[in-house]
Amino acid sequence: MEKTFNSKINIEKIVIDYLLIKFDTQKRSVYYIAKVQEVLDENSEFRVTFLRKYKKGLRFPDIEDVAIINKIDIVYKLPEPKDLPGTSRMADILKFDIEFFDYDIQ
Predict the structure, then answer these.
(1) Average per-residue pLDDT in the chain?
(2) Could you say which DSSP state residue 16 is in?
């Protein structure tokens, strides 16, 4: 059974975690899943690597997509992802035990 988000997650204690990130454009909000690579500036900025949708999960792109984000861009701290069973190609795909219905994950 997949879980929903817990809105009371303490983002003050972020280390090497997975996050749901929100970027607002002029027309809409865009959401990404990212993994924290490094905590910068006393836990208010983070160097992250973004994941991309792939089949029935997420994976890191072949060309690393790295950015610096601010704490205000973080929507949720996510639980550890599950690895999908199967071939070595499937081992690169991550799945979170959460439904992202309300978010258009990129």
Answers:
(1) 80
(2) S
Q: Which of 25, 34, 45 is nearest to 77 (CA)?
A: 34
Q: pTM of the full predicted structure? A: 0.78
Instruction: Kindly state whether residue 48 falls inside one of the protein's structural domains.
Output: yes
Determine the structural domain holding residue 84 and report its residue range.
16-95
Separation of alpha carbons 97 and 100, rounded Å: 10
Total number of domains constituting the chain: 1
102 inside domain:
no
Domain for residue 4, yes or no?
no
Cα–Cα distances in angstroms (integers) from residue 73 to residues 33, 67, 69, 91, 93, in the given order: 11, 12, 7, 29, 24
Give Cβ neighbours of residue 65 (< 8 Å, ≥ 6 apart).
Answer: 49, 50, 52
